[in-house]
């Protein structure tokens, strides 16, 4: 164990500039992923739109984040391409934060958030791919830290926005009280499954909101991230994105290959760079050269993340609506803390998983997390009237879901000898699951009631565990 920790530390010291840069861009990702929910009512006032119109911006951001995830792998041909894409994406996020207060129509706001979503998707794919390429069989530890920074950014963003949110309706003349607005703010989620027509808010009048200051503060806080990426680009001294690597990069990749050879006894796959984004996996005859085993690992691994990331999105969006309705009937202020508990648990779980990944193989962590996810959702379903266990179960579910994504990336890349394409595929599947399952579960809840939220979570958990068992069986059959 001491030898393992020493090797990990040695690899980190050889690549610390790139590693810290990739971690920092995921903080930028986290800032962007959680600001929209708390600020959506103030943005509705700013654009003087209805609730039905303003909730379309959720879909705009989510859809373009999926597109960004799909094409992000195209920029990983060289370290320079990756850094240039990260610099552009993180800078765009700061620009979007700065111009959101200037968007006085829903269309302009949707366009701005589409740009932000595209940048977030590119960041998601590139950072994961590059860390896997650098650390290979030791990547699980560094992926856990990477995804911890998402949680950190997601916690910071609402804290910045909270002091600037309107406590009463921000259109002068509206009669909605503080409690109803707080209820609306907590209910709004990234889905069209809610019936917003029963809420009547004024769209015309004098707009009184200070949310602009929150966005400008977030733009300034995020600005050091593209500066760090640009500084690393200058350190590498690589002028061309698609040209030959600089000697410094070749030297660094040689160190990584040397360390890999010492750790596993075989060199890095020389054809790693042949796999670009999701679409490049299917062009130039690449798909025809893939074995049934490789395709099966891609599909099964992607479907597992489709389910687990889908649960993460579904639970964070709908747990509040479930808690405030019968039979739970919690006060709005109390129920509003559930999403914070859930995301705090995910952040804590990823932090705890960092030292755990040094001692336990990713496959064993995955089995424990998926089993814990099923047990927790089952207990939530059985104890559906227990408000105390709702908070306990929310925290446990966040812990079990927290490290599934990074462990699955490390596990599948290890199976396929770090060919690179699988990371892009898994990130795309995960983003698709988060978007699609929110819409599907939202429609089910709208037609059958909020209790179906827990039942859907339980069913999706079981499907995810079954798919992972199929992945293990498939690997064993082709070993």
TrEMBL record:
It comes from Synaphobranchus kaupii. It is found in: Membrane. GO terms for cellular component: membrane. Its main location: membrane. It is a multi-pass membrane protein. InterPro entries: MFS_trans_sf. Keywords: Membrane, Transmembrane, Transmembrane helix. Belongs to the major facilitator superfamily. The chain crosses the membrane at residues 20-37, 57-75, 82-100, 106-129, 141-161, 213-233, 297-323, 335-353, 365-384, 390-411, 423-445, 451-474. Gene3D superfamilies: MFS general substrate transporter like domains. This is Major facilitator superfamily domain containing 4A.
């Amino acid at each position: 164990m001491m030898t393992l920790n020493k090797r990990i530390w040695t690899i980190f010291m050889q690549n610390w500039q790139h590693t810290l840069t990739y971690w920092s861009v995921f903080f930028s990702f986290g800032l962007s992923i959680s600001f929209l929910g708390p600020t959506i009512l103030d943005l509705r006032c700013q654009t003087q739109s209805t609730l039905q119109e303003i909730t379309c911006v959720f879909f705009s951001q989510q859809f373009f984040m999926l597109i960004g995830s799909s094409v992000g792998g195209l920029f990983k041909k060289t370290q320079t391409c990756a850094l240039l894409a990260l610099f552009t994406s993180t800078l765009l996020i700061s620009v979007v934060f700065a111009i959101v207060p200037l968007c006085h129509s829903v269309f302009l706001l949707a366009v701005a958030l589409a740009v932000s979503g595209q940048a977030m998707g590119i960041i998601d794919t590139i950072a994961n791919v590059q860390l896997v390429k650098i650390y290979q069989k030791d990547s699980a530890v560094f992926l856990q830290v990477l995804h911890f920074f998402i949680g950190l950014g997601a916690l910071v963003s609402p804290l910045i926005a909270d002091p600037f949110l309107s406590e009463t309706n921000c259109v002068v003349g509206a009669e909605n009280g503080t409690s109803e607005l707080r209820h609306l703010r907590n209910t709004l989620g990234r889905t069209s499954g809610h019936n917003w027509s029963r809420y009547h808010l004024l769209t015309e009048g004098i707009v009184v909101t200070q949310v602009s200051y929150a966005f400008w503060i977030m733009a300034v806080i995020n600005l050091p991230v593209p500066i760090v990426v640009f500084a690393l680009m200058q350190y590498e001294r690589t002028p061309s994105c698609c040209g030959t690597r600089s000697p410094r990069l070749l030297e660094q990749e040689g160190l990584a290959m040397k360390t890999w050879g010492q750790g596993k006894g075989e060199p890095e796959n020389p054809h790693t760079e042949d796999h670009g984004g999701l679409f490049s996996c299917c062009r130039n005859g690449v798909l025809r050269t893939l074995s049934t085993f490789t395709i099966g690992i891609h599909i099964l691994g992607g479907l597992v993340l489709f389910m687990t990331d889908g649960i993460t999105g579904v639970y964070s969006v709908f747990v509040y609506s479930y808690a405030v309705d019968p039979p739970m009937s919690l006060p709005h202020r109390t129920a509003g803390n559930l999403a914070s508990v859930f995301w705090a648990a995910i952040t804590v779980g990823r932090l705890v998983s960092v030292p755990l990944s040094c001692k336990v193989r990713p496959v064993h962590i995955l089995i424990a997390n998926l089993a814990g996810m099923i047990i927790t959702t089952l207990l939530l379903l059985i104890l559906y009237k227990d408000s105390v266990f709702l908070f306990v179960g929310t925290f446990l579910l966040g812990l079990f879901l927290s490290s599934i994504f990074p462990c699955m990336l490390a596990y599948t890349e290890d199976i396929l000898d770090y060919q690179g394409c699988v990371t892009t595929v898994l990130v795309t599947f995960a983003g698709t699951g988060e978007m699609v399952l929110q819409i599907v579960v939202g429609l089910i809840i709208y037609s059958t009631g909020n209790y179906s939220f827990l039942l859907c979570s339980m069913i999706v958990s079981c499907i995810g565990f079954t798919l992972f068992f199929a992945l293990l069986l498939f690997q064993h059959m082709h070993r």
